[in-house]
Each structure stands twice: as structure tokens, then as C-alpha cells.
Design a protein that fits this description.
This protein is an alpha+beta fold. The chain has three domains: 3-87, Uridine Diphospho-n-acetylenolpyruvylglucosamine Reductase, domain 2; 90-205, Uridine Diphospho-n-acetylenolpyruvylglucosamine Reductase, domain 3 (2-Layer Sandwich), CATH 3.30.465.10; 220-314, Uridine Diphospho-n-acetylenolpyruvylglucosamine Reductase, domain 1 (Alpha-Beta Complex), CATH 3.90.78. It is built from eight helices and 18 strands. It has helices at residues 7-10, 44-56, 111-120, 136-141, 201-218, 243-249, 278-296, 311-314; strands at 15-21, 35-41, 61-64, 70-72, 77-83, 92-95, 101-106, 123-124, 145-146, 149-150, 155-161, 167-171, 188-198, 224-228, 256-257, 260-262, 269-272, 305-307. Strands 6, 7, 8, 11, 12 and 13 form a six-stranded antiparallel beta sheet that branches. α3 (111-120) runs antiparallel to α5. The radius of gyration is 20 Å and the shape is globular. The relative contact order is 0.14.
């Protein structure tokens, strides 16, 4: 443990601490190493103080959401990893005045829970994200979405903490949302506001069920994976095409290295077994990128985020 993490660094921060925390096991891949320290702040003020102290001391700082789109290297990660799992980061409230309903929600709130609650209330907008595992903050950061829409479609504002621990609120239109990306300048998302349209609760709940059924038929939901491994690329005609179809066309379904393999059910899913490692997943991803490029000339980009102590691996 570095001297930077001695008790005086955290002593006045109101938070739960876990040193050598096995965060790899907390991801959907269930593989990977540890974090130097996992911190769960008990308030926004505590988080602000921690963030400011980390940046003043040049200590790496990361936020762990649900771990649904994340691969932690077997070497683990250095610095501070934050988990926003206290109740202050998991609340929501509605402002139901006027033709548009405003949902204000904290970043640690579970996306699936928000979808079900808004569907029961007859609010249209978030239901298009059914079946996507994420925290609200993580979903916003990567502009989570699928065939039916993206989270930015109904997003109005995002409130963040800067490196200096200061709160700023941005309009969604100013944050550069695009396919599976955003240009949010600050390291921590605190909360967001969505503009949702009142609708028929029965119809919205049916839509949620239909999306779940479609995903169940198309994706290996029962296997251990982190969802789509690669972004759908743009072809030479400027059209976004399916990464899964490219991988399948290269004959890579079932490709196995160690305890990781390309799913037979959906080629853009890499699944792991109990014996798998993060390096197995990385090796499969590298092989897929190489062989798809060799056969099509198209470079696949990771959709899964990789954390590592090794900067080369993280890149």
C-alpha cells in the first residue's frame, strides 16, 4: 500500500473503505483483479473532498457502476475506485407538472429499476432501454442504448463534479452525445434530469416485455458476459453495420482462448467460464479485431471499457 493511502488521506472523509478490493469479481465478466482501495462515500460532500484530494495528489480516480460494460485486468487497477452505493446516490423524484414529466434521478440509481418505475407510472421514454444493465451514471457516460433508442434521447440535464470537486450542471445538448459515447468533461456524474412523456401504462409495460423477449431471443443473456464487446462500425458507404455479423462472417463464433470465447448465440458477445481470466477475454478481443480487419478491412472498436494498471492494456 502506497504512503498516499495511509489513514490520514481518508481519515476525515465520511466513507466506507475496502483495501485490495476484488472489483473484477464485481463486474459482469466476474474476472479480473483488485483495486488498491474501493471507497463508498456517504455524501456528495465526502465524494467532493475525496475527488479534490485525489486530483491534488495525482492519484488515479475511477467510478465503478454496475460493472456491466467493464473488464478489469488481472493485474487490477491502481488508485481509488469509487462506488456510489449509499442511499444518497440512489434516490429519484418526479415533477409531474405540465405536458412533460421531469424525472430527477441520482447517478447510482439502477437503470432497470428506473425503467420499471416509469413504466408503471405511464411515463414514456426510458422503456426503450429495457434489458440494459447499468447504473444511471454509467448509462449516461457511455450513452447506453440499442435497437430501440439511447438514454440521451430523453435526457435534459446532467449534474457533475469537476476535478476540483465543484458541482456543474450541463444541458444534454452541450455534452456531445453520439453512438455509445459522450463528451462529459467532468470525472463524476452526480445526477440527471429526464423529460418523459405521459402515456398508457399498459402499452408501455407491454413494450418493456416485448423488448425483453427480443433480447432473450437474440442475445446470450444466461451466459457470463459484459454485453456487446465491440461497437457497430461504419462501413465505406457511411452506414453503421453490425459488428456481430462481421464477426460471424469471419467464422469466429466459438473462437476460444482459455476460459473466454465468442458466443455461439451472438458473435458480438464474449463469454467467460469459471476458469476464465481477463487476459483470456483480451486475447479473444484482439484475435477478433485482427481477423475481422484481415477479412473486411474494417477496424472494430471496443465497446467494453478496460481498466488496468498497465497503460498499454488500458488503451
Amino acid at each position: 500500500m502506497s504512503v498516499r493511502y495511509q489513514s490520514d488521506f481518508f481519515g476525515d472523509i465520511d466513507a466506507d473503505l475496502e483495501f485490495d478490493a476484488p472489483i473484477g469479481a464485481m463486474t459482469y465478466y466476474s474476472v479480473g483483479g483488485k483495486a488498491d482501495v474501493l471507497v463508498s462515500p456517504r455524501s456528495t460532500d465526502a465524494l467532493s473532498l475525496l475527488l479534490r484530494r485525489c486530483y491534488n495528489s495525482n492519484i488515479p480516480f475511477r467510478v465503478l457502476g454496475k460493472g456491466a460494460n467493464l473488464l478489469v485486468d488481472d493485474l487490477g487497477v491502481d488508485g481509488v475506485v469509487v462506488k456510489l452505493n449509499h442511499n444518497c446516490f440512489k434516490t429519484s423524484r418526479f415533477n409531474r407538472e405540465g405536458p412533460i414529466d421531469a424525472l430527477h434521478i441520482m447517478s447510482g440509481y439502477d437503470l432497470s429499476k428506473a425503467i420499471m418505475e416509469t413504466a408503471r407510472c405511464g411515463l414514456d421514454g426510458l422503456h426503450v432501454l429495457a434489458g440494459i444493465p447499468a447504473s444511471i451514471g454509467g448509462a449516461i457516460r457511455m450513452n447506453a442504448g440499442g435497437n430501440f433508442g439511447s438514454i440521451s434521447d430523453t435526457l435534459s440535464t446532467v449534474t457533475c463534479l469537476s476535478k476540483a470537486g465543484e458541482l456543474s450542471t450541463y444541458r444534454s445538448s452541450d455534452l456531445g452525445f453520439a453512438y455509445r459515447e459522450s463528451k462529459i468533461p467532468d470525472p463524476v456524474i452526480i445526477s440527471a434530469t429526464f423529460s418523459l412523456t405521459p402515456g398508457d401504462p399498459i402499452h408501455i409495460r407491454k413494450s418493456v416485455k416485448d423488448i425483453f423477449a427480443w433480447k432473450k431471443s437474440m442475445q446470450p443473456l444466461a451466459d457470463t458476459s459484459a454485453g456487446c464487446a465491440f461497437k457497430n462500425p461504419i462501413n465505406n458507404n457511411g452506414e453503421r453495420i453490425s459488428a456481430g455479423e462481421l464477426i460471424d462472417g469471419a467464422g469466429l463464433k466459438g473462437l476460444t482462448i482459455g476460459g473466454a470465447s465468442v458466443s455461439q448465440h451472438h458473435a458480438n458477445f464474449i463469454i467467460t467460464t469459471a476458469k476464465g481470466t481477463a487476459r483470456d477475454v483480451l486475447s479473444v478481443m484482439k484475435d477478433v479485431r485482427t481477423r475481422v480487419f484481415d477479412s473486411t478491412g474494417i477496424k472494430l472498436q471496443n465497446e467494453v471499457v478496460v481498466w488496468s494498471r498497465d497503460p498499454e492494456i488500458q488503451r
